[in-house]
Write a structure and sequence with these properties.
The chain is α+β, with helices and mostly antiparallel strands and 267 residues long. The protein folds into two domains: 70 residues, no CATH class; 184 residues, no CATH class. The chain contains seven helices and 13 strands. The strands form four sheets. It has a seven-stranded mixed beta sheet with strand order 4-5-8-3-11-9-10.
Length: 267
């Protein structure tokens, strides 16, 4: 018999547990944790007019961690998404000018790659995201000025904010959700971006949390995506070898060709 496992992102935890039971070696992938910033589109206009989705990466001085912008949405909207029952934050924009907002939003993500003995980056990311749900009932939003001053954003302070939020989120305190290291990295990145796009680190810049990008634990596989157990193949995002629908589909085709070759007595 030949088995192909395609657990998908939602089955990543289950598949990781299964691999541990089968004593199949796993390579820890990273998890990116951070916030989604929202500010007036004018702040990044000179950049987004030239490069619609600027991808900016920075190594912090404090921790030598990598912080990056991701999924920049000029004239866009902040939205929620459901990740295994946990409400996280994301963003999108419309091509139709009539549907555009006055704001630009983008993710600020801190990359963490764990070493031994820690083996559960996926659960780590989910746990942090769940804290926002616990404290705010979903996505939490905080003014940058309030975060810097160590105070919770409340409805009164939000009502006086120059930036009008495009997502109805719960005003709160992100310092009760994100680890200090992540917050320090994000604040340092915002100050650096402020030199590139003055106004980024304004008091009224909105920060939504939590945004998480998961990477499933990766199996050690052959070039045909076969595991250490003969005739057991693993493909797609859940196996940690792809990131996205097109790549996952391509991995399935590649494994299928290897299986056909073996069934025909050539593998």
């Amino acid at each position: 018999d030949i088995l192909i496992a395609a657990p998908g992102r939602s089955g990543a935890e289950w598949f990781s547990d299964l691999c541990n039971e089968l004593h199949l070696p796993l390579i820890n992938n990273q998890v990116d944790i951070g916030v989604r910033g929202e500010l007036p589109s004018l702040v990044f206009k000179d950049i987004t007019d030239v490069m619609y989705e600027a991808k900016l990466k920075y190594m912090t001085r404090g921790y030598n961690d990598i912080v990056r912008t991701f999924c920049m949405n000029p004239y866009g909207y902040v939205v929620t998404e459901n990740t295994d029952g946990i409400i996280t934050v994301n963003g999108h924009s419309f091509d139709d000018p009539a549907l555009r907002s006055e704001n630009t939003n983008f993710a600020l993500l801190v990359s963490n790659r764990f070493t031994e003995p820690f083996k559960e980056p996926y659960r780590y990311g989910k746990h942090i995201a769940s804290l926002s749900n616990m404290l705010g009932g979903g996505v939490m939003v905080q003014r940058l000025g309030d975060l810097k001053n160590g105070r919770r954003t409340n409805e009164h302070r939000m009502s006086k904010s120059f930036v009008r939020p495009t997502l109805e989120a719960t005003p709160g305190d992100l310092s009760l959700v994100l680890p200090k290291r992540h917050l320090d990295n994000i604040l340092e990145m915002l100050e650096v971006l402020d030199r590139l796009a003055p106004g980024t680190a304004n008091t009224d810049t909105l920060l939504y949390g939590v945004e998480v990008k998961f990477y499933s634990a990766r199996l050690e596989l052959t070039n045909e995506f076969e595991t250490g157990l003969r005739n057991f193949f693993a493909i797609g995002d859940g196996a940690g070898i792809t990131r996205g629908l097109s790549q996952a589909g391509a991995s399935g085709l590649h494994a299928a060709r290897a299986v056909l070759k073996r069934l025909n007595g050539n593998g």
